[in-house]
Amino acid sequence: MDIRYRKAKISDVEDIHKLITYYANKNLMLARSRSSLYEGIREFTVAEHDNKIVGTGSLHIIWADLAEIRALAVDENYIKKGIGKRLVELFLQEAKELGIARVFTLTYQPGFFERCGFKYISKDELPQKVWSECINCPQFPNCDEQAMIINL
Asked: How far is 20 from 30, CA to CA, in rounded Å?
């Protein structure tokens, strides 16, 4: 299967939103507003097959030595084809190129990230700056996502 990976464009926002919303409605990931997708579009990478967005995610820089993988989603018809893993690899490579030493995620899918080399950590180990956006989350203050990290 020929999957193309590229940085997202403004014209991808509706497809990215649709993919994320599908999983958010199943309580498998957090929802993202269109506004937040437009504002953060430079952080997103997409996986494309036959001109269709089949996967997405973003690398969000937190601090000099810390970034977060966010909004990772793969179309249910393309799961188990290595797309999610490849997106994670691309984000880790991007973090290395930027000189970022650690990448974390907050996830409802810890098994997937564990297979990608991430380790469980306590949320308390993450700096306070990580939580600045949590105030807008519907799960706040009772976050039930798992915190995981990888050292590069």
From this structure: 8
- Hey, what are 46's tokens? 């997409």
| Average pLDDT of every residue of the chain | 91
In this prediction the pTM is 0.91
Give the full edge-to-edge strand order of the sheet including 4-7. Answer: 4-7, 44-49, 52-63, 66-74, 102-107, 146-151, 119-121
Cα 70 from Cα 60, distance rounded (Å): 7
Token pair recorded at residue 57: 């995610």
The CA distance from 134 to 130, in Å, is 8
The residue behind tokens 């997708």 is 37
User: pLDDT tens digits for 83-92?
Assistant: 999 999 999 9
Would you call 91 helix, strand, or coil by DSSP? helix
Reduced to 3 states (helix: H, G, I; strand: E, B; else coil), residue 1 is: coil
| Cα 12 to Cα 10: distance, rounded to the nearest angstrom | 5
Distance from C-alpha of 69 to C-alpha of 51, rounded to nearest angstrom:
24
State CA 2 to chain mean position distance: 22
The β-bridge relationship of strands 4-7 and 119-121 is: unpaired
